[in-house]
Specification:
Helix content: under 10%
Strand content: over 45%
Structural class: mainly beta
Mean pLDDT: 96
Amino acid sequence: MKTILYKAKTRGHAKYDWLDSYHSFSFDTYYDPERMNFGALRVLNDDWIAPETGFGMHPHKNMEIVSIPIEGYLQHGDSKQNERTITAGDIQVMSAGTGIIHSERNNHASIPVISLQIWIMPKQRNTPPKYQDYDIRPLLKENELITIISPDGTTEASLQQDAWFSIGKIENGKKLSYKLHQENTGVFLFMIEGAAQVGENKLSRRDAIGIYQTDEIQLETLENSHILLIEVPM
């Protein structure tokens, strides 16, 4: 098993009047040649968006984009006439494919948005653009990591990539295992909240670890935790 540790304090950072964003991988003005991607995972941005602001209409092409709101209300609009507002407990999945223009805004007058923006490189290029969002709350189970995105039709949302997203809120002192779905994939484990022990590594809030060349991962929570796992081809 090989690991790459990503401590929260080592992430890239961009701060504006309306946006406070931390980048796990090179993005915008943050560039680190050692942090370009983890396999097919290209971007994981931890965004704070001020009330009545947000990302205006802008284009994407040949990228799979997942938004996971943690707090607040994120309003999506795009050139395919999709318009939805999502909140904690929802996820949003967009295949940019041949091209799509979209906005992600916080139109609330007083509540900020905290959201994870995740980009996955697609398995196939120039596919038709697609948008999905759905409520994952009915799927969640106490002290379990639940798969919310998969390529095999077992979840409501999928990507143009062999990628699995799993998420869960786990109480302190729980031991969990995660079995990888394919050979030659790796897992990016991101601590949304809490703390956990993964092998010899202790992870705290917003820390992450990339794990590959293994078929199973063991972890133990050290606090009540909210954990995201992203399994992607390496």
